């Protein structure tokens, strides 16, 4: 994989990779930036969320689950001192659909965590990651009802 950033001014850059897409990188004005783009650490968290999200929604589709809305949030704690690395993360999955099977959700999360998501596998080596899931029954329109909210616990070895 190849990636690069191109500097514009102060702490403003454009980042791109092999796909050719470009995104703005910036910094907070308090450190000399113009508040004009993603912070690099935000992109790392987004990458983690996106990596596992693609796995889980793909697996749920293969398991013929009727998913109508899907979201993954990453809550990352950071060290107080520089280099302010991530010290712990919680990945939280929000699945809405019709009759979504909890076992299918748990298996999809497990497969992403243990087999498919390279971002999660990499971070799992350096910090604790908690996994939570929320399953909602889609009731049409914007209405949904919470069916289950749990912390994922890996199977006993």
Layout of helices and strands, plus pairs?
Blueprint: E1 3-9, E2 12-17, E3 22-25, H1 40-62, E4 66-78, E5 86-98, H2 102-116, H3 118-124, E6 129-138, E7 144-151
Parallel strand pairs: 5-6
Antiparallel strand pairs: 1-2, 2-3, 4-5, 6-7
Helix pairs in contact: 1-2
Strands of the biggest beta sheet: in what spatial order? Answer: 4-5-6-7
What count of structural domains? 2
CATH superfamily of the largest domain: K homology (KH) domain
Under the CATH scheme, the architecture of the largest domain is 2-Layer Sandwich
What is the terminal separation in angstroms?
A: 35 Å
Shape: elongated
What is the CATH C level class of the largest domain, in words? Alpha Beta
Proportion in β-strands: 35-45%
State the total count of DSSP E strands. 7
């Amino acid at each position: 994989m190849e990636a690069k950033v191109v500097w514009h001014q102060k702490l403003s850059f454009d980042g791109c990779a092999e796909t050719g897409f470009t995104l703005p990188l910036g910094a907070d004005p308090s450190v000399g930036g113009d508040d004009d783009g993603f912070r690099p650490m935000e992109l790392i968290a987004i990458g983690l969320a996106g990596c596992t999200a693609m796995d889980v929604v793909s697996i749920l589709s293969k398991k013929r689950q009727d998913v109508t809305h899907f979201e993954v949030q990453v809550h990352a704690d950071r060290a107080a001192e520089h280099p302010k690395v991530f010290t712990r993360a919680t990945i939280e999955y929000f699945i809405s659909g019709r009759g979504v099977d909890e076992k299918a959700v748990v298996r999809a999360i497990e497969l992403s965590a243990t087999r498919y998501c390279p971002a999660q596998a990499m971070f799992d080596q350096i910090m604790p990651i908690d996994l939570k899931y929320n399953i909602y029954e889609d009731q049409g329109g914007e209405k949904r009802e919470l069916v289950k909210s749990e912390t994922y616990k890996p199977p006993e070895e």
